[in-house]
Amino acid sequence: MDIRSRVALRIRTIRKSRGLTQEDLAEMIDRSVDAVSNIERGTSLAGYDTLERLAVGLGVAVADFFADAEPGSSRRTAAMQRLVDAARSLDDETLEKGVAIIEVLAGRRSFG
Questions:
Q1: Pick from 87, 84, 81, 70: nearest CA to 10
Q2: Which domains are seen in the chain, by residue range?
Q3: Reported pTM
């Protein structure tokens, strides 16, 4: 999967996780529904201005569109986005505890 397809998947996944339709998003970013559709299908490359509008409209950083750049399923992409969204709401101490739990689950660290 090329970078355009991965970014398209991330944008579509984040939009859906927010409960937005393509029409909703198009209106929020002052673009046509066709433009949003083309971006989400990876047939059109969004310019920086559009990426910035998408980030603001979806409540994420532009970098989030490029995060987890390894190819993966839409299910994995959605789970990663939910994880990032949840982590953003945590204070530093709780976030560090969450990271430790995930590291145990990933086998990178022992429990205790």
A1: 81
A2: 3-105 (1.10.260.40)
A3: 0.69
